[in-house]
Amino acid sequence: MSEPPVQPLFASAARAVRKLQDLGDPLPAEAVTQLSKLESSSLSDAERRTQLETLLRPFVLLDVSIDEQGTALCAPGAAPPRLMQHGWRSFLVRVANPHRIEAKLVAGNGGVYGLIDYQSHSARIALHDTLTIVPRIKDAWLDATIAVPSELSGFEVEYKVISLYTRDDGVRKGGLSVFAADEHNHPSLSRSPLGLAGFRTNFESREYGASFDFDCAAAREIRLDIREPDGRSCMASITVQDGQGRSYPSKAMRLAPDMFFHEHVYRATGEMIRLPEGRYQISAIRGPEYRPVLLDADVDAGTEAIPITLDRWVDPAGRGYYSGDPHIHAGGCSHYNVPSEGVTPETMIRHVRGEGLWLGSVLTWAPCYYHQKQFFSGESISPPADLEYPLMQAAQGMTWTPQPTDRDAESALRYDVEVSGFPSSHSGHLILLGLTDQDYPATSLIEDWPSWNLPVLRWAKEQNALVGYAHCGIGLGVGTEELPNYIVPSFQGIGSNEIVVDVPLGAADFQCGGQIAPAAEMNIWYHLLSVGFRTLMLGETDYPCMYDEGPGVGRTYVRLNEPPAGPQAIEAWITGLRESASYFGDGRSHVFDLAVDGDVGREHSLDAPGPVRISATVAAWLPEQQPPPPAGRPAYSAPVGWHLERSRIGTSRSVLVEVVLNGVVVATQEVVADGTEQELGFDVPVEKSSWLALRILRSVHTQPIFLEVGGRPIRASRRSAQWLHDSVDQLWKVKSGFIREEERAAARQAYDEAQAVYRSRREECEAD
């Protein structure tokens, strides 16, 4: 039998050596030089092959042999198994594949992890769904991954790279296995972090693995000295990455409050992070009111602390505006996809403080409902940011002690309810803020709740709760960005569907958005305002369902005479929403003190038509240059959803502030988004009773100011009244089949009453 060609072996070796270089574990320069010379040597192929294998043997940690069934047998190589605690080390893997099987090479760690789904758990991804098995956490100290490209080429011998992470220090006994996994026949493989699906051997059997006594060098506990510009201590979002872009702590090894779906962790002044010796890039920020602070840090034997001073560019609270996110979750979505417990208030308050929010509304919904409802108290709380499961976290090696900060009392949680996954969810997901009782009368199960929203809203409003709709734009896009537009949507999604019935009946106060396309989110709102309703619009995140980054991706700012604090913090904030100025958006632009003829009130009476003076203070911040395109993309790609970067005019640093009157832009002014506060003024003619607002589209929008001329109510658009009337018809057509038969007559009556209101207002309108 003839020898296989040697060139593919050299190509494989060269790729693996370059990968080791990229991962920060290069071969000695002498070995790289010898490999290069050997590739162009005049020796025979057999001699070159022998010398190549001899040259690389000292750096091979794992020898793999794949049989005709695709079973991978593993044995220790000659490389010393030396690892770094809380760090990555990379080694060569030699793969003998005489039957030329083509498959994806996947790394395991001797059965420690078991079969797992990357998207199934609230924290450490290898845990059972109960999240209570301390010995399992203690044993799961090693992570292994095959570096890209991980596919076997089908050649008889080739080299790959394996990277290992250890949580622990000292000498630890552990096993490694490698699998030849058929990704084409097992598509779930691409969704698993270790690819442990569809492998061609029995994972739980350890006879194919290789055992090692790993020598794990200890990492250092590094104290983070995080400070506000004025020196106060605080919580912040900290991202630590090495030169290869790997985040620390390892995302696969995290346990709440450190989440595996974040690049960052939340740390307070004086808290620790464990790092092996090396060079790191650190990013620190505390929500969009801060510029990111970027610094390089060298960790060595003398490193004890890393000082970080945050860079705040705007302080809305200094002007009396207090931020809140009315829609975040402690369970579900990225926390996990299968029923479980979720995380506790101690973790949620850490995330809210780390994003610089004054209030976070933690909404209990169908996933985790029966567990999470225990945290409802009918009051706002500001718990210490303790580690929530001490035994589990101790087993995980989280030895740092949570620290209080100077700003802790400024952030509060309020546990309330999102009616999502309930019988009425087809009508739109409800947010109920400020409940005193979270259990609908005469129910013990979610399935017992009403199958349409109006009864739920009326029950909540009896408690003086502020009630409305979540993620309002889902299913309401109509293929145009025109705002307002008069195309009746399909109402096929879970956006603010039934709001077109509930508002005219006095049962809904707001809708939440600031997440997707403005036309889908705000079209209903604009139409409701144009026929005289005082509906509010709030910014939300729906963390970690629509956005994983953290609470406050979308947020709402409310003007108050004093900070919202204590058990009644949410009630004070709700009162401000009802009575005072507010705005919502991404927190990268702000509109303070919107006034008509110097009056910042929400309601204005004008004796007669004529011009009014609109004034406001606007601040916005963008980096001077657009961020570079993501790797592999040919052009700049703006962030999704609402983000000031999407408001940038061309490549300048300017954005456009617009005055909106009855939904129509009537005045504009460009401002430079350099972080400075800028006083703006507009003269706007008002011919009839109207609503007015300021916006930077896709970044910030104020609540409307209402102008009544000559004592007449706002009836600005017959077309809006007709659109709302027709939308009720479409909603009934699509949703009535989901309403229980015994509730359908009452629902039909309510739909009819809503349409009667719209017909009446249509006749009262002053213009088309």
List keywords for this structure.
five-stranded mixed beta sheet; alpha+beta; 768 residues; single chain; 16-stranded mixed beta sheet; Immunoglobulin-like
Structure write-up:
- The protein folds into 4 domains: 6-217, no CATH class; 219-312, Carboxypeptidase-like, regulatory domain (Immunoglobulin-like, Sandwich), CATH 2.60.40.1120; 421-469 and 471-539 and 719-767, no CATH class; 586-626 and 640-716, Immunoglobulin-like.
- Helices cover 19% and strands 29% of the residues.
- The protein contains 13 helices and 38 strands.
- Mean pLDDT is 89; it is low at 110-126 and 184-206.
Give the helix/strand layout:
Blueprint (H helix, E strand, L loop, with lengths): L6 H16 L6 H11 L5 H12 L3 E7 L5 E5 L5 E3 L3 E9 L7 E5 L25 H6 L2 E5 L10 E10 L3 E12 L28 E8 L2 E8 L7 E7 L5 E2 L16 E4 L3 E4 L2 E8 L4 E2 L1 E7 L5 E5 L1 E2 L8 E8 L16 H10 L4 E6 L4 H4 L7 E2 L8 H6 L16 E8 L10 E4 L20 H8 L4 E4 L29 H4 L7 E4 L4 H13 L5 E4 L15 E5 L9 H11 L2 E4 L3 E8 L6 E4 L3 E11 L33 E8 L2 E9 L5 E9 L3 E7 L3 E3 L2 E5 L8 H18 L5 H24 L4
Parallel strand pairs: 1-4, 3-9, 10-18, 20-21, 21-23, 25-26, 26-27, 31-38
Antiparallel strand pairs: 1-2, 4-7, 5-8, 6-7, 8-9, 10-14, 11-12, 11-13, 11-15, 15-17, 16-19, 20-28, 22-23, 23-24, 24-25, 28-29, 29-37, 30-32, 32-35, 33-34, 33-36, 36-37, 36-38
Helix pairs in contact: 1-2, 2-3, 10-12, 12-13
